Amino acid sequence: MIRRLMLLVMIIGGIHITCLSQNINPEKSKIEFRVANLGANKVKGNFSGMKGNVKFDPKDISTASFDVCTDATTFRTKMKKRDQVVKGEKYLDVANYPEICFKSTGVFHNGMNYKLTGILTMHGESKEVEIIFNYSRQTFTGKLQVNRLDFKVGPQSGFFVGKEIEITITCVIE
Description:
Order of helices and strands: HEEEEEHEEEEE
Radius of gyration: 19 Å
Low-confidence stretches: 1-19
Number of helices: 2
Mean pLDDT: 88
Distance between the termini: 38 Å
Shape: globular
Strand order of the largest sheet: 1-4-5-6-7-8-9-10-2-3
Largest sheet: 10 strands, antiparallel
Structural class: alpha+beta
Helix content: 10-25%
Number of strands: 10
């Protein structure tokens, strides 16, 4: 009898945990970026192919978690030659590092928004980052800045390509 009761509790608990996990809609989700080019221009581009696990209940953020990756091979700036160079060995090296991933370590209220802390892994390097985001209508919209040199992406000089990258994340869940 006790074994059956324990099994029932485990099944109900498993159903509850499964219900909290939301699927990412990869067609509507994207990562956009802006980076300085030649010190004056801003190059804009994006990544697609976002996938992973999201658990988020705005009524109880203590159980929230994000484990999300995007396909690095989807890098696009509307200039094919530049895209090929950036996907190559000098920058993203997508042949060896085909994904850019984020795994959360904490979610906190931040005024009207939320602060998400976690580990960003890109180009074989992992660093802790903070993402400020809002959540509305099954959509997370977040912003962060990363220094590409922290991830050993591109040359040390910041003249041709700026060091700081502004990133906007839109993650739509179902």
